Amino acid sequence: MTSSRTTKGRGKLYDTILDTIGDTPCVRINSLSPKGVRLYVKAEAFNPAASVKDRLAVSIIEEAERSGALKPGQTVVEATSGNTGIGLAMVCAAKGYPLVLTMAESFSVERRKLMRFLGAKVVLTPKEKKGFGMYNKAVELADANGWFLASQFETDANAKIHENTTAREIMADFEGDRLDYVVTGYGTGGTVSGIGRVLRKERPDTKIILSEPANAQIVGSGTTQGRNEAGQPAHSHPAFEPHPVQGWTPDFIPLVLQEAIDNKYYDDLIPVAGPVGMEWSRKLAQKEGIFTGVSGGATFAIAMQIAEEASEGTVILCMLPDTGERYLSSPLFEAVPDYMTEEEVALSHSTPSCQMPAA
Ligand code: PMP
User: Fold this and answer.
1) Mutate to test the pocket of ligand 1, among 24, 42, 52, 152 (most ligand atoms within 8 A of CB)
2) What is the CA(47)–ligand 1 centre distance, in A?
3) In the predicted structure, residue 67 carries a pLDDT above the cut 90
4) How far is the CA of 81 from the centre of ligand 1 (A)?
């Protein structure tokens, strides 16, 4: 007999939404996991604005407040594939800073709407200009207006928050337990650099596995990235191609990620095709009830690959960066009908009341 579910509250009252960032749960995979291994996902959708980038957003703003780089009431500007913008919009709303975001038109419409709903302005950039274009637009707007550029791709506030929170949470949750693999992708590289700083020192036996899109292997290509003195990219990387894993792999190697490359913070780099990521995102939803986006599915695809080949008792942790709800208008949901499938129409017609016609 199992006892009924009860809860007891969090034992504290929160002064601001920002204090609810982090401490996301590591959740066991049950039906999808091969027998004999323990596979866990760290569900970053539990953050208040539903992605891993909430951590980065609060870190950038609070580090800049402390250093004096950000003045009260000053406008913040940043280039974003979406989740950083949504996180920054939440943080700026809570703290009272105006926010302008630049974003390539190729990212999902719900991302733009969420940022605007949270009070930010969104300046779209042409998709042909890729990530580098939206990035340059943010730099240009900051210079022209004296705004604070959040610089997620270069700032040390990025890896630092993952070192101080994400990595600490992993250390605490797996204390006294095995942890053979941590699997993650990269966008800015903040997650992998922050986790690498801690795990390489404190859990050197844990293998860190990095992933990137199969058609945009900018790290795997071995071609180095040119940068200016501020560490900003000097050009678009030649190995880049547009890929469907939103939030992953911009068309340059960010300075924040360069730390993980230079210090060998990962033991293996495994490419994954975007459609495979979407397939695993669907399976996580339908077989585990775990809702994540394309990058979560792509990371999970690699975690499953490792799990299938792993020896008895292996423990694997897979990062799931955001919620699937951020992809309703994207190819991830393409096969999900608006109306009713044939099977649903048949169900509608199988009893007398409230019948609806076929589409
Ligand atoms: N997945 C998604 C959906 C993201 O938005 C991001 C961040 N851009 C990442 C993964 C990668 O995280 P990081 O920037 O820490 O490398």
Assistant:
1) 52
2) 14
3) yes
4) 9
Q: Are residues 273 and 174 in the same domain?
A: yes
Greatest distance between any 2 Cα atoms in the chain: 73
- Sorted by sequence, the CB contacts under 8 Å of residue 261 that are 6+ apart come out as 219, 253
Residue of higher predicted confidence among 208 and 250:
208
Single out the catalytic residue among 53, 130, 137, 160: 53
Mean pLDDT for the chain?
96
Q: Is 211 a catalytic residue?
A: no
Report yes or no on 327 lying in a domain: yes
Total-model pTM: 0.96
* 359 inside domain: no
Residues in the ligand 1 pocket, defined by CB under 6 Å? 51-53, 81, 83-84, 185-191, 246-248, 293, 295, 321-322
The percentage of the chain sitting over the pLDDT mark of 90, rounded to a whole number, equals: 95
Same domain, 143 and 286: no
Q: Which two tokens stand for residue 61?
A: 């703003």
> Rounded to an integer, what distance in angstroms lies between the CA atom of residue 117 and that of residue 90?
10
Q: Are 192 and 260 in contact (CB under 8 A)?
A: yes
- Kindly state whether residue 157 falls inside one of the protein's structural domains: no
Atom 4 of ligand 1, nearest CA residue: 247
Range of the structural domain that residue 110 is part of:
53-149
What pLDDT is attached to residue 36?
A: 97
In this predicted model, which residue has the larger pLDDT, 317 or 3? 317
Residue 124 sits in a domain whose CATH number is: 3.40.50.1100
